[in-house]
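Need a sequence for this fold. Nothing fancy.
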């Protein structure tokens, strides 16, 4: 067996360009670790088919692939446009309407009935992730008359942002609840909650999941100023974080986005919560065979910032080259990780030990102490792998936040726990019947992962008094 070439996890969105089984299989072989299903597009029949296809491919290739279901949330979207798109030109007048019409260059339908109440004369409205800008000239009962400030091509169902508006509606909608039920019923591993504003939104979703006896890894998408303001409480309530730079870069001054990305990633690393960097990472590959130099640098910088995963959206959902895009992402990750590994444990290589001590405001747990001891051991001894039997995945995530050079091989008896670890950097899960030291060594030896006299580090739990969970490490030659 050969482990993947890259430790950074790659999330790829499924869509019309990538729903065929042979395409999904090729994407997995190219480096896809998580398949994202965007519930804002398509129908439930299509989503069910995609889930079954991913599971079938994963089983056939004997590779773990997690499934992330992304909730639509309260995003305001453009309705249907004649021919699928329209070109808006600077200084032309265009009307946004909540009436049921087919869009054209003079009138654009909006799929949110209260939209006219959200805006006032003089407000700037952004369409399509901020690429098109309109200024409000007049507000009527169902219509908002605008002047085009920045033109461009607008496609059906693209997003609408009004940075100054406040939406008096919960982030988790009744429609989202239906998708959560669907996700539970069809064995989706994780959900992404859109437009989270506070911990309340996360807890509302968790309560709904618990009431239905479901298990979902809850990832909060940071894409509103309120989410940035309340980030610590959202981070504490979530299993993972997604920095959704599309809407975030419109809702907040775009020049602040790079520093904000670094800050949020660092905080997630400290908390040992997996963090995803998303939106426009290799967007030019939607149409082109190669990315721009700036995009390649963007992906590399996100990895150096400490992100656990990078995400592809339109590139693989509707792009011309979904498999090539995943392969390119894997190449960038592999090269960037090699640089970081050669400088480990310098600060550029991930969360430094002194930085963790200074940034963590809580008293450490036994597992924290074990994770710190592991990192110090890795810096002193030539260790091939970190072997981690884990019931919940927590120990593996505590190690992953330091972005070590070595793979962390996690051994779980629960396949769902293993799939949730597909969001964490450098963690490769194995689902086994038992997690004894003997079985673990037999497995990795049988797979050819270790050779004679290779040194490994094993974490385990030894019942001593009232202590439970991982509390011991052992370093030895195989």
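Here you go.
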């Amino acid at each position: 067996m050969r482990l993947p070439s890259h430790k950074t996890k790659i999330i790829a969105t499924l869509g019309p360009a990538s729903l065929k089984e042979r395409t999904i299989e090729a994407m997995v072989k190219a480096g896809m670790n998580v398949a994202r299903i965007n519930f804002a597009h398509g129908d439930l029949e299509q989503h069910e088919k995609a889930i079954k296809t991913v599971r079938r491919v994963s089983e056939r290739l004997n590779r773990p692939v997690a499934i992330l279901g992304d909730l639509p949330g309260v995003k305001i979207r453009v309705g249907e446009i004649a021919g699928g798109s329209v070109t808006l030109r600077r200084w032309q007048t265009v009307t946004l309407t909540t009436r049921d019409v087919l869009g054209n260059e003079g009138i654009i339908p909006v799929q949110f009935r209260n939209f006219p109440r959200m805006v006032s004369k003089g407000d700037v409205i952004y369409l399509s992730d901020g690429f098109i800008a309109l200024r409000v000239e007049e507000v009527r009962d169902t219509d908002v008359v605008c002047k085009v400030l920045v033109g461009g091509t607008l496609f059906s169902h693209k997003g609408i942002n009004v940075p100054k508006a406040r939406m008096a509606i919960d982030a988790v909608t009744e429609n989202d609840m239906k998708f959560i039920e669907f996700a539970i019923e069809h064995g989706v591993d994780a959900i992404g909650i859109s437009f989270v504003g506070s911990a309340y939104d996360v807890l509302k979703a968790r309560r709904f999941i618990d009431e239905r006896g479901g298990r979902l890894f809850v990832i909060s998408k940071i894409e509103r100023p309120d989410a940035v303001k309340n980030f610590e409480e959202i981070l504490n309530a979530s299993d993972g974080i997604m920095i959704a730079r599309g809407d975030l870069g419109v809702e907040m001054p775009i020049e602040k986005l790079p520093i904000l990305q670094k800050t949020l990633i660092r905080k997630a690393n400290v908390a040992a919560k997996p963090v995803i960097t998303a939106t426009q990472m290799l967007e030019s590959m939607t149409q082109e065979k190669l990315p721009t130099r700036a995009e390649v640098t963007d992906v590399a910088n996100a990895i150096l910032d400490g992100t656990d995963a990078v995400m592809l959206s339109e590139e693989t959902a509707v792009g011309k080259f979904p498999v090539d895009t995943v392969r390119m992402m894997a190449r960038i990750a592999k090269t960037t990780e090699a640089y970081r590994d050669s400088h480990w444990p310098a600060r550029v290589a991930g969360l430094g030990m002194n930085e963790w001590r200074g940034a963590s405001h809580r008293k450490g747990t036994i597992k924290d102490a074990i994770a710190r001891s592991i990192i110090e051991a890795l810096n002193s001894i030539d260790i091939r792998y970190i072997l981690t039997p884990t019931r919940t995945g927590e120990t593996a995530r505590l190690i992953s936040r330091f972005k070590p050079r070595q793979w962390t091989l996690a051994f779980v008896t629960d396949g769902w726990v293993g799939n949730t670890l597909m969001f964490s950097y450098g963690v490769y899960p194995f689902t086994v019947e038992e997690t004894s030291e003997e079985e673990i060594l037999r497995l990795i030896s049988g797979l050819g992962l270790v050779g004679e006299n290779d040194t490994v580090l094993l974490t385990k739990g030894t019942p001593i008094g009232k202590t439970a969970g991982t509390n011991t490490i052992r370093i030895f030659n195989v």
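For context: The CA atoms of residues 118 and 166 lie 7 Å apart.
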